[in-house]
């Protein structure tokens, strides 16, 4: 049952850590915290089950109360949250796994019923969008976002500070590093794009100005915990959270960002692709990236084993992250390496993506457990 091509299963160094294989578990919001957005023992079990991944990237962890956009997502800004996360990092490390926390500020993709205040954004521009929050009739579900307020300089300084403190908190919680969420129409991505950023100060207008917040956040965190423990996720060809408007400047701007990040020696750059409203990434763009960026690159977006192998062999990427396949296959790496069938999403799986308990979260069996159950009958 051995795979004939082992590229995916070779170790690689990502900044300060060495991972056992090139398969990462992508960040996926699951909304299963307790009151106060505190990570739980059930979450520790969920991540521990998937520790065979070369690297686990957690679901997005808001860096402050105002950064929140989905109810019951685990924060990284209070002592109780830090203590809660220690359960997950310890559980993953006990299985010889590595784990980064994704640091998250959603910007305008929120609602005051979630944060208690108007959403923050580079400009007061709203697009049609929904997030997971409290329903007027009770319970939780998808709700329409609110008109955001434009951030002032004090707000920007606060965000940079909050990202940096969150990174320090991550180190205290035992994480191997942090991934900054700069993709999917969230705050940093909102600053990058002309469709959401119509500022006239130092953070708007030119590409260099729109890149400023991203670079200041990355450099501040890198100075605080070491650049080799820092990564960032980008999605230049995805228009999620942007009212399905694609900014034609994003490819060029992204290359400029990478030129600035190259000398820092980050753990990796993570490109999210092929989700929501997207455009296919041109091969020429991948070549352009490699011309300006030689450090580790991760890609994610509906990859399967053979396409993951191919993009690594072409040297366009060094690691491939898998999302929903890790939900239903806690032993995904073992199954891919041994060419075993994957468990597919159940017909009711989407109802268990956000919120709830163990069902659809920690109750998917490994291949070995499935075999044992079959032998019992």
Automatic annotation (TrEMBL):
SUPFAM superfamilies named in the record: FMN-linked oxidoreductases
Presence of the UniProt keyword Oxidoreductase in the record: yes
Residues covered by the NADH:flavin oxidoreductase/NADH oxidase N-terminal domain: 8-342
Signal peptide (residue range): none
EC number(s) reported in the record: 1.-.-.-
Pfam families reported for this sequence: Oxidored_FMN
The protein's required cofactors: FMN
GO molecular function: FMN binding; oxidoreductase activity, acting on the CH-CH group of donors, NAD or NADP as acceptor
Stretches that traverse the bilayer: none
One GO cellular component, as annotated: cytosol
Keywords of this entry: Oxidoreductase
Recorded family membership: Belongs to the NADH:flavin oxidoreductase/NADH oxidase family.
PANTHER family given in the database record: NAD(P)H:FLAVIN OXIDOREDUCTASE SYE2, NADH OXIDOREDUCTASE-RELATED
Name this protein carries in UniProt: N-ethylmaleimide reductase
Organism listed in the record: Aureibacter tunicatorum
